[in-house]
Write a structure and sequence with these properties.
With 514 residues, the protein is an alpha/beta fold. The protein folds into two domains: 308 residues, Rossmann fold; 128 residues, no CATH class. A twelve-stranded mixed sheet has the order 2-1-14-13-12-3-11-10-4-9-5-6, with helices on both faces. A hairpin with a 2-residue loop joins β1 and β2. The longest helix has 18 residues. The two termini are 50 Å apart.
């Protein structure tokens, strides 16, 4: 097949439709052909995607070049920063002869530049504190973090149901422990038994121990007020989309925690954003690095919920890109929803590797230009096999692509620049201090004290007039409706996918950037 035929096939398959993401140029017989441009229409970036490849093959830099171009096109981006090396997106990268030579081969000018970046953290050490209340997080996601079995998950669901029914705000893990003790060994034991079902001491004891273990690991900072507002992912600065980076480098030994938190953000986006229909460009693109962590040991019901989010969230104007070593790391039900594919080199050292290679090859359209099984093992750094959806939603020709180099720094910011970025950040100021409102623990303590006072009151021996035998107490609803947390979450509790609470109001003053 001639070079001209290849160029024509690529340009027909990847038309220069504006606006788009320029991924790179096609390679044929080892030659980079600058006329064979590989593009992803911005209108197709909400059809989701996969970035896969062996360790060290350049997946993180592919994430970076996509994020840079999305930002410059005015699309906000959210990315999990697993190794803490993406903050360099904030400043222009260096230029050198090698990069300029690569740019020249692609037929472009290399113009280093940064994009607006917001740094977030689950520990509060590496960025603005991201947190959620336990009530918002929901029983199913919390059960995954606590590694509960089905029976224990059922008990946790009962606790949340009781709290919802009685307007009892569970803000942090201390609140959850208090509610658990109140309903299993306190005055609420009979009430929960008659209205919701009995809870065994074995199940409650296991849940309590796992909550304490989570606190000892320092994960309790993830839960509390003020909780993160999902609208803060949608900011723009000077027309460029803000790239929100969640640095989890200090939580790599707690993959269940950060991967589940990411899923809670995605679930809230799905539940709160209005239907958007077909857009010229997405409202937000959400990148999930080390995506296999979401699916490890996940029960069937959990996987079905993820599949539902991925299938339906595109209609809200949100694109989701999964990044992992192998396509097989994702369930087939999720993989089938990913229309854009960037596949870096695969190694084939073992029989298992060989099978994974065959399985990957079978997921690609046939190509007149490549033997895909051979090409996948010969890709170099900064190269990938690409197939995407064109502007009509049709899968494109498979293209062996030499990728565009990122224009920002490919690495972490120096600490002094991180400190400066946080000092100037509205989000860092907004979420820095934890608020300790009256919530379940305080409300239940108050009820117990009232009950103790009533039990110790002396009885009147011969009342001349009939008097009430007990003081009139506020109901649970009346007590809680005056609390700040209730004003935060509103009077109506609605739980959607994963039991995540949505439709909440916030008392925090929001400063929106334009």
């Amino acid at each position: 097949m001639s070079k001209q035929a290849f160029i024509e096939a690529i340009n027909k398959s990847y038309p220069d439709t504006k606006p788009h993401i320029f991924v790179g140029c096609g390679v044929l017989e080892g030659e980079i052909l600058s006329e064979a441009r590989v593009n992803i229409p911005l209108s197709m970036m909400n059809r989701h995607g996969l970035i896969a490849g062996a360790t060290g093959s350049g997946k993180t830099r592919t994430l970076q070049l996509l994020a840079e171009q999305l930002s410059k096109a005015g699309v906000p981006v959210f990315m999990s920063d697993i190794k803490g090396d993406l903050s360099g997106l904030a400043i222009p990268g260096p230029t050198n002869a090698k990069l300029e030579e690569r740019a020249q081969a692609l037929g472009i000018n290399f113009n280093p530049s940064g994009v607006p970046v917001e740094l977030y953290s689950l520990s509060g050490r590496n960025g603005a504190q991201m947190r959620a209340t336990v009530m918002e997080f929901g029983p199913i996601l919390l059960a995954k973090v606590l590694e509960l079995n089905d029976t224990q998950t059922g008990v946790l669901t009962i606790l949340f149901k009781y709290a919802d029914d009685h307007a009892l705000p569970i803000v942090d893990l201390n609140d959850l422990k208090k509610v658990l003790n109140y309903l299993t060994s306190g005055p609420g034991k009979e009430e929960i038994k008659s209205n919701y079902g009995s809870i065994s001491s074995a199940s409650s004891g296991t849940i309590l121990r796992k909550i304490v273990a989570l606190e000892q690991q320092g994960v309790d900072k993830v839960f509390g007020e003020p909780s993160f507002e999902i609208d803060d992912l949608m900011h723009k600065v000077d027309g460029q989309g803000v790239v929100s980076l969640l640095n989890v480098s200090d939580m790599q030994d707690k993959p269940d925690v950060f991967s589940t938190f990411l899923l809670s953000l995605l679930a809230e986006l799905y539940q709160t954003l209005p239907e958007a229909g077909d857009l010229d460009k997405p409202k937000l693109v959400f990148f999930l690095d080390e995506a296999h962590l979401l699916f490890n040991d996940a029960p069937k019901a959990f996987l079905e919920q993820i599949e539902q989010i991925v299938r339906l969230i595109r209609s809200k104007g949100v694109g989701v890109f999964f990044c992992s070593q192998m396509a097989q790391d994702l369930p087939d039900s999720v993989l089938s929803q990913l229309g854009n594919r960037v596949q870096h080199v695969l190694r084939s050292f073992t029989p298992k590797d060989a099978k994974a290679l065959r399985d990957t090859v079978n997921t690609y359209p046939r190509s007149e230009f490549y033997k895909i099984d051979e090409t996948l093992t010969q890709l170099g750094i900064g190269q990938a096999l690409v197939t995407v959806l064109n502007s009509k939603g049709i899968p494109t020709e498979v293209a062996y692509t030499h990728l565009v180099p990122p224009v920002a720094v490919m690495g972490p910011l120096p600490q002094n620049e991180v400190d400066q970025l946080l000092k100037e950040s509205e989000m860092y100021s907004k979420y820095r201090l934890t608020v300790d409102p009256e919530s379940a623990a305080e409300i239940l303590d108050k009820r117990l004290r009232k009950q103790e006072v009533l039990e110790n009151e002396p009885l009147e021996e011969a009342p001349t007039k009939a008097k009430p035998s007990v003081r009139k107490e506020k109901s649970m609803i009346e007590e809680v409706m005056s609390s700040s947390v209730t004003r935060t979450i509103g009077r109506e509790l609605v739980r959607g996918i994963f039991g995540v609470l949505f439709g909440k109001k916030t008392t925090t003053t929001r400063t929106r950037r334009k």
